UniProtKB/TrEMBL annotation:
Coiled coil: none
TM segment ranges: none
UniProt source species: Candidatus Hydrogenisulfobacillus filiaventi
Keyword terms: Carbohydrate metabolism
Location of the Glycoside hydrolase family 57 N-terminal domain: 7-287
Example of a GO biological process term: carbohydrate metabolic process
Name the UniProt record assigns to this protein: Glyco_hydro_57 domain-containing protein
One example GO MF annotation: catalytic activity
Protein family according to the UniProt entry: Belongs to the glycosyl hydrolase 57 family.
Signal sequence region: none
């Protein structure tokens, strides 16, 4: 039975697009294009709200639990969030630094912009993941040895790309189609030096999604009950993965989610379970005898666990094609600042926010929940058309600019 629990929480905020789309011209610099592409007023408003409801109180809670109650925690942070916090909530960056300074808290690196870059350019994906590792280490003073990607995206080439970079471990979602008969409670050999750790879907979602569901037969979930569920799980360890916003935003403070977490360390100890960081789990437990080759087709922790949450309807497919055009046009131009804008335009969130198009059910409801209220007056088709226009305007403006020559080629090879 499991004696170790690894808690992984990931922090991310998207850089939302400006709708209706603004007109761009070839004469605009990348810095002039940015506020026309992205609605920074909206992003500031959302960031400020989430910082108040979730980041500040949850960081205080985790600091208390780690400093005084022995909780060990792995924390993933996107560079997209770091940029926004530095602009609009710098005190949260300070609090993050204070939490990460504690010996029991591990920094996990995620794809910097939470993007779909691995689908378009695996070599630049490698460079960006290396860039992320270096920049997070400089920003927070902690080395990154275990990594996430975007929404736990994992496949054969992503695994190989990360393994070549020397990461010690990576996380993936422990869906049945990924595990193929294996339990997600072992450390796995993925075919290289890098180990794989699988999120326990059911035990994660008991807190991440079902905690406030009054129709769930486990409601209300109490810390002692949850601790015994973990202790009774066969295997070496359990890894649970949650959005950081679970605490205070997805589940409001009045739901009892903070009290649940504050009682969890003592409940785990009573059940004979200790918390570990992800790297500690890798160090403590040998790889299972049965290796786990990563899937050929991409797995994620979104929706039903495959890429259909992001590419499952005609609107998403349309925008994804435009992402290709925007990225390739910027790369051919050679201006690193335009390439950076194209990387922001590759954020998975731009596909997440239209998952509801032509769909119904819980997944569509989640997507609609995150879609900005300000967009809905455009109508369903209007939202999709205006998102498409953002990319079309970018491609038109970049294609109309003179490309950089030799220096540009060097910049593309060496740049972000």
């Amino acid at each position: 039975m499991a004696q170790d629990l690894a808690i992984y929480v990931v922090m991310h905020q998207p850089r939302r697009l400006r709708l209706p789309a603004a007109t761009l011209t070839p004469g605009m610099s990348a810095r002039e294009m940015a506020p026309a592409l992205f609605d920074e007023e909206m992003n500031a408003r959302y960031l400020t709200k989430v910082a108040e409801t979730s980041y500040r109180p949850a960081l205080a809670m985790f600091h208390e639990l780690a400093a005084e109650r022995g909780l060990r925690l792995s924390l993933g942070i996107s560079w997209s969030l770091v940029v926004q916090l530095e602009r609009w909530a710098p005190d949260v960056i300070t609090r993050l630094g204070e939490l990460l300074a504690l010996p029991g808290v591990e920094l996990v690196g995620v794809e910097p912009y939470h993007s779909f870059l691995s689908y378009l350019d695996i070599k630049r994906f490698q460079r960006r993941m290396s860039w992320m590792r270096d920049h997070l280490a400089k920003r927070f003073g902690r080395q990154v040895t275990v990594t996430d990607t975007t929404e736990m995206m994992m496949n054969r080439e992503i695994y190989l790309a990360l393994d070549q970079l020397g990461f010690q471990g990576a996380v993936l979602d422990g869906r049945p189609q990924v595990m193929r008969g294996r339990e997600p409670t072992r450390v796995f050999d993925g075919g290289g030096q890098m180990r794989l750790l699988a999120r326990h879907v059911a035990l994660s979602d008991d807190v991440g999604y079902r905690f406030t569901d009054r129709n769930w037969d486990g409601f209300p979930l109490l810390a002692p009950t949850y601790a015994h569920w973990i202790a009774d799980t066969p295997g070496d360890f359990v890894m649970v993965g949650w959005d950081f916003e679970t605490f205070g935003e997805h589940h409001r403070r009045e739901s009892g989610i903070f009290e649940f977490m504050r009682h969890l360390p003592e409940s785990l100890a009573a059940a004979g379970v200790r918390t570990r960081t992800l790297s500690e789990v890798i160090a403590r437990h040998p790889a299972a005898e049965d290796p786990l080759p990563p899937p050929v087709e991409t797995a994620t922790w979104a929706g039903i666990g495959d890429i259909s949450f992001f590419l499952g309807n005609p609107a998403q497919e349309r925008v994804f094609r435009l992402m290709h055009h925007a990225y390739h046009t910027a790369v051919l131009n050679g201006d690193p600042e335009l390439v950076d804008l194209a990387l922001w335009l590759l954020q998975s969130d731009h596909l997440h926010l239209i998952q509801w198009y032509g769909r119904f059910g819980p997944e569509a409801e989640v997507s609609a929940y995150f879609t900005p209220d300000e967009w809905w007056p455009l109508g369903n088709q209007g939202i999709v058309n205006e998102i498409a226009r953002v990319y079309e305007q970018f491609v038109g403006a970049v294609a109309g600019r003179p490309a950089r020559r030799a220096a540009g080629r060097h910049a593309v090879m060496a740049g972000t």
